[in-house]
């Protein structure tokens, strides 16, 4: 009986048209007395009438309630990678709008932590200023928390994993492997140009949104500070970190047949056409209304 369930579960998992690389074990947590494969079976095949009591007892066994909740919902994760300025933040909201994913941006979660003036905030700020990667445990915990708090079970995680340590920490702590990695490929000169431009674009947006006269651009641009890391000095460091530590992670996933490469140098619209065709290949899953 157990063998039958295991093979059914595996065949369901293996039908993804995109994950063509070597098959992985399903996400699992170590629970008291339960082997990793038993828990998804219980959750998949339990009569919905009894689900409440079953999940309650599972919750009792999981290290935390949230861990059980996350597991039960079998989230689907797509990592979105590419150099700083490659268009990750521009394309992700479009994916949310068209495909109902929840967008989690590692950089934004870290920024929110800085702004909340938490214990880690100052330390994160220093890493950012130096263009360095924040210690993985902090970033992974923030991502895990955001996933657990979301009603949506399909996530695009933008700007993560940025190095090998990020990748290993996510797999060890969250215990989920990505369905695929969306990679925005863009040459270095274009990245630099876009990042230097980004602060000015933000100011233009503000002027338009507030219906302020355009001549104020010159006045305000003097005060333009924008992101602490969008200056020529830090950009150089960020690009170095990207080529030295993030590209190897992309190569790792490529060797597993998991990378969907997009030519990100074209217009925003053209890039999104390619993105759409990648996501359209995903197995159909009941669309989740909330993108929270
Ligand atoms: N395909 C594109 N062509 C030209 N400019 C773009 C394109 N995609 C994004 N941008 C612009 O480049 C800047 C960086 O894009 P962003 O999405 O913030 O990058 P990332 O999140 O990867 O750092 C933004 O000002 C954005 O408007
Ligand atoms: N996994 C991550 C993601 C971002 N960070 C830090 C370091 C990055 O330079 C900043 C900003 O990242 P974000 O993804 O918002 O921006 P860029 O893609 O670099 O333009 O956050 C990190 O330390 N670890």
From TrEMBL:
A ribonucleoside 5'-phosphate binds at residues 132-134, 159-162, 227, 238. Residues 1-27 are annotated as: Disordered. The keyword Nucleus applies. Its EC number is 2.7.4.14. It catalyses: dCMP + ATP = dCDP + ADP; UMP + ATP = UDP + ADP; CMP + ATP = CDP + ADP. Gene3D superfamilies: P-loop containing nucleotide triphosphate hydrolases. One of its GO terms (biological process) is nucleoside monophosphate metabolic process. It is found in: Cytoplasm; Nucleus. CMP binds at residue 166. GO terms for cellular component: cytoplasm; nucleus. GO terms for molecular function: ATP binding; nucleobase-containing compound kinase activity; phosphotransferase activity, phosphate group as acceptor. Binds 1 Mg(2+) ion per monomer. Monomer. Consists of three domains, a large central CORE domain and two small peripheral domains, NMPbind and LID, which undergo movements during catalysis. The LID domain closes over the site of phosphoryl transfer upon ATP binding. Assembling and dissambling the active center during each catalytic cycle provides an effective means to prevent ATP hydrolysis. Catalyzes the phosphorylation of pyrimidine nucleoside monophosphates at the expense of ATP. Plays an important role in de novo pyrimidine nucleotide biosynthesis. Has preference for UMP and CMP as phosphate acceptors. PANTHER family: NUCLEOTIDE KINASE. This is UMP-CMP kinase.
């Amino acid at each position: 009986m157990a063998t039958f369930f295991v093979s059914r579960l595996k065949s369901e998992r293996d039908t993804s048209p995109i994950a063509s690389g070597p098959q992985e074990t399903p996400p699992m947590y170590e629970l008291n007395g339960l082997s990793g494969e038993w828990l998804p079976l219980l959750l998949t095949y339990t009569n919905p009438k009894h689900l409440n009591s079953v999940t309650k007892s599972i919750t009792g066994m999981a290290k935390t309630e949230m861990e059980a909740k996350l597991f039960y919902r079998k989230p689907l994760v797509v990592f979105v990678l590419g150099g700083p300025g490659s268009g990750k933040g521009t394309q992700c909201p479009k994916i949310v709008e068209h495909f109902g994913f929840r967008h989690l941006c590692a950089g934004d979660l870290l920024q929110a932590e800085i702004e909340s003036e938490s214990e880690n905030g100052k330390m994160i700020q220093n890493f950012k200023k130096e263009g360095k990667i924040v210690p993985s445990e902090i970033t992974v915990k923030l991502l895990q928390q955001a996933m657990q708090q979301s009603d949506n079970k399909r996530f695009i995680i933008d700007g993560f994993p940025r190095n090998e340590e990020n990748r290993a920490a996510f797999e060890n702590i969250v215990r989920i492997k990505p369905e695929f990695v969306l990679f925005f490929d863009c040459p270095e000169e274009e990245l630099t140009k876009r990042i230097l431009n980004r602060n000015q674009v933000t100011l233009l947006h503000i002027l338009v949104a507030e219906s302020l006269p355009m001549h104020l651009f010159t006045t305000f641009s003097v005060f333009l500070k924008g992101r602490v890391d969008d200056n020529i000095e830090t950009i150089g460091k960020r690009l170095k970190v990207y080529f030295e530590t993030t590209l190897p992670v992309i190569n790792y996933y490529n060797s597993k047949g998991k990378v969907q490469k997009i030519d990100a140098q074209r217009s925003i619209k053209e890039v999104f056409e390619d993105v759409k065709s990648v996501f359209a290949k995903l197995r159909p899953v009941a669309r989740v209304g909330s993108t929270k």
